[in-house]
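ugh ok fine here u go
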Amino acid sequence: MADAPLRDEVQRGLWFEEFEPGVRYLHRPGRTVTDADNVLFTTLTMNPQPLHLDAAWSATQPFGRVLVNSLFTLSTLVGLSVGQLTRGTLVANLGFGEVRFPHPLFVGDTIYAESVLVDKRWSASRPGEGIVTLEHTARNQDDAVVAVATRSMLVWGREAGERANG
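structure:
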């Protein structure tokens, strides 16, 4: 065994052909949200909403504490999927359909993400590339759904992707 040549295996997402119906892709590990995450994201995006920044004021509001910025939640949900689904195989995001936040996310909560294939088809205008539509779901540590988003993206087919990426 020691003399056998090694085969290189590069971590990547899925080629278009590898996305399967009937599979729930579980993205692990999860991500525990800190106060610094929420404040940094909120201020970097120029969002002065006191629900994300003012603990004393938020304590007087219906949820009784600071809410994590919903766009941080969405960004983290998609980001958690990258290593398993699109790292090095994504051509471009095409857009988001419905996005919902059915339960609040709080500092200290942990986000766990999963994705399910909604649809896929080869692109009519871009040979070797396909359009994949996924439904991403984020749950907290108590299994409450905190975000759901439908996303369409352009993904390399294996042959074209291997050729394009060397």
